[in-house]
Design a protein that fits this description.
Structural class: alpha+beta
Order of helices and strands: EEHEEHHEEEEHHHHHHHE
CATH architecture: Orthogonal Bundle
CATH superfamily: Transferase(Phosphotransferase) domain 1
Number of helices: 10
Shape: globular
Strand order of the largest sheet: 2-1-9
CATH class: Mainly Alpha
Oligomer: single chain
Organism: Thelephora ganbajun (Ganba fungus)
Largest sheet: 3 strands, antiparallel
Distance between the termini: 7 Å
Helix content: 40-55%
Radius of gyration: 19 Å
Number of strands: 9
Protein name: Kinase-like protein
Number of domains: 1
Length: about 270
């Protein structure tokens, strides 16, 4: 077990994730109320109860065009807010989008999220190798040449651009009511991705040629060519209000300084 100032490093990372999540206040991001200590699995995140469950289940019941449009816009608003305060979600998919009693989507599960500023993110993220293949950007599935040469199995960190890719797959889910690459098994999805294949265009009355063009840009192979989330939001809601992040950045930097000690000895203790 790795210790920093006598505190397990994994626990420090977990606490930082919770503090950052509590500071991200937005109607399309699920608020964290606290943490509960239990015997199994040990630590549980406490949040508001979401009456309608996850988005995939909700859309199978409520499939009207209006619901679909509102759901997509809410997801993009939530993701735009996260990115505006330099938080990468890292595991965006319909099962991590919960629906409240008003039908409002809330982004949740920041198990793979990280704060992108270097002064805060050094120890803030959990392991990067997890996640679901159907929603993860291709660049996150490949080991770097350096990692291969050194025999390390660490995958690249999620980024804002990889969130953009995942959003495109969520668009497919919202428009079809099915997971991306349905009905293929995960093993075959890997083959499809290696061939640069993507899901077919959804057959839906509200899925316009403009939306198809935007979706294809979002899942492009080159991360640099993908649009930023503010641009996506602007396409969906021209003139949408932007977020002033200065006050929140002050809090985020405070979290970084409080959770990551500037001094102290590191020791390794084996269990």
């Amino acid at each position: 077990m790795h210790l920093v100032n006598g505190i397990p490093r994994g626990l420090q990372r977990f606490c930082k994730e919770i503090l950052v999540a509590k500071l991200v206040k937005n109607e399309n991001v699920l608020a964290i109320e606290g943490v509960q200590m239990t015997d199994e699995p040990g630590l549980c995140i406490v949040s508001e109860w979401m009456e309608h469950g996850d988005m995939h289940t909700y859309l199978r019941i409520m499939s009207s065009p209006t619901v679909l449009n509102l759901s997509l816009r809410g997801v993009v608003r939530g993701l735009n807010h996260l990115h505006s305060v330099e938080v990468v979600h890292g595991d965006l998919k319909s099962s991590n989008i919960l629906i409240d009693s008003s039908g409002n989507p809330r982004l949740t599960d920041f198990g793979l999220s990280s704060v992108t500023r270097n002064d805060i993110s050094a120890n803030a993220s959990t392991k990067n190798g997890r996640g679901t293949i159907r929603w993860r950007a291709p660049e996150l599935l490949e080991l770097s040449t350096k990692a291969k040469d050194e025999g390390k199995a660490k995958l690249p960190r999620p980024t804002k651009k990889s969130d953009t890719y995942s959003l495109a797959m969520v668009v497919i889910e919202i428009s079809t009511g099915r997971h991306p690459f349905h009905p293929h098994m995960d093993e075959y999805v890997i083959i499809l991705l290696a061939r640069d294949s993507r899901p077919d265009k959804p057959v839906h009355p509200n899925f316009t040629p403009e939306m198809w063009s935007l979706t294809r840009r979002c899942w492009g192979n080159d991360p640099k060519e993908r649009p930023d989330i503010p641009e996506v939001l602007e396409k969906l809601e021209p003139g949408a209000e932007r977020i002033d992040r200065n006050n929140l950045w002050t809090l985020l930097n405070a979290v970084g300084s409080q959770i990551s000690p500037k001094s102290g000895k590191r020791s390794n203790t084996n269990h």
